[in-house]
Amino acid sequence: MTLSEKDSLYNWHPYTQHKTSTPHPVIVKGKDALLWDENNKQYIDAIASWWVNPFGHSNAFIADAIYKQLNTLEHVLFGGFTHNKAIELSEKVLQLLPNNQKKIFYSDNGSTAVEVAIKAALQYFYNKKESRTKIIAFENAFHGDTFGAMAASGISFFTEAFKGSLLEVVRIPVPTAGNEETTITALEKLVNTNNFAAFIFEPLVLGAAGMVMYDAEILNKLIAISKQKQVFTIADEVMTGFGKTGKTFAIDYLTQKPDMVCLSKALTGGTIPMAITSFTQEVFDGFYSDDVNKALFHGHTFTANPTGCAAALASISLLETDEMQKNINRINHKHSLFANHIKQHKRVANTRVLGVIFALDIKVQNAESYYGSLRNKLYSFFIEHGIILRPVGNTIYILPPYIITDNQLDIVYKTIEKALNEVE
């Protein structure tokens, strides 16, 4: 029995309808921006394996940090104990975040980072005996798959089966160009009711919605409106964090700063699951009490795993190197040149670039669903040609590792243009 056959026999993959899906490539090795399957077919990983791997596969520097930590302390419970790597990582992350962030809470992944933020916002007002039980979010947002994160998400087919079991979230339009005043009006109406604990958003780029982008100026206004009515603001930087937008965090483009920030994905350089939710002192003080019942009763077995902390520290140190910052600028320049070229194509509706993120929308007669037929044809075409890209509906995006070469990027660009010419 082949590995692929064993996989089909044993494994249930995420976001997969197994009755209609084709066998998955079995990846056995990775190095830098490349992956190889069991048949030694080579793939360019043009999405950094779901946005987690900015420094390349099998990164020796991060691997060495993990190895050293495994030989010192692989794990210790964080309930009732602490350790040097968690303290060091918290100090480092707080140095990178806006200076209003004062406390770090660890969890396991992007969904749980968001879950922690939502629970903290709701319980903050519960502790004050103030009834604020609702959340504000953008339409078409995606914040994760756990119940609080799922409730805040707006992509309906992800949440349809559970809509009767979710907390109440009211969605406002994404403030794309020309839509800003509509969004402002909607938010002002909601915050004035004093029923809402928090406003959660993906800053500047909605990833799973198809890399939908909007300006920092309008987000500044939305945060200011929320603060006027003490509605906490939650920046979900799970996708955008650690250099994706050209700055360390997307919120670095803002003058207004959120009350909470959610981080994961690239935090450990794609090596070990780990997440962070950061808080202002005000939020933390809402739980600081002689009453034990006002504590934040949330935790995970692998909270602040020392090995994950060591990987994160190594990952951040790589991000801060001149070489990596030059790579980010290089990719941004390459993307911009390609955008200027491909936007002339008869099938391209529009293009957009921010940092290392490139996206184009294909002109279609009718709106394509997330996993529509065009998307599936494009995905199969890219895999056949040795490129890992995961289109969203009629949107093709690139979000590569920062160490991808110019030649590899050119291959990705040429393959996208070929797909536009050949895939209907």
TrEMBL record:
It catalyses: (8S)-8-amino-7-oxononanoate + S-adenosyl-L-methionine = S-adenosyl-4-methylsulfanyl-2-oxobutanoate + (7R,8S)-7,8-diammoniononanoate. GO terms for molecular function: 2 iron, 2 sulfur cluster binding; adenosylmethionine-8-amino-7-oxononanoate transaminase activity; dethiobiotin synthase activity; pyridoxal phosphate binding. Substrate binds at W50, K265, G299, R390. InterPro entries: Aminotrans_3 (IPR005814), BioA (IPR005815), PyrdxlP-dep_Trfase (IPR015424), PyrdxlP-dep_Trfase_major (IPR015421), PyrdxlP-dep_Trfase_small (IPR015422). The modification N6-(pyridoxal phosphate)lysine is found at K265. It holds the Pfam family Aminotran_3. Homodimer. Catalyzes the transfer of the alpha-amino group from S-adenosyl-L-methionine (SAM) to 7-keto-8-aminopelargonic acid (KAPA) to form 7,8-diaminopelargonic acid (DAPA). It is the only aminotransferase known to utilize SAM as an amino donor. This is Adenosylmethionine-8-amino-7-oxononanoate aminotransferase. The lineage of its organism: Bacteria, Pseudomonadati, Bacteroidota, Flavobacteriia, Flavobacteriales. The gene is bioA.
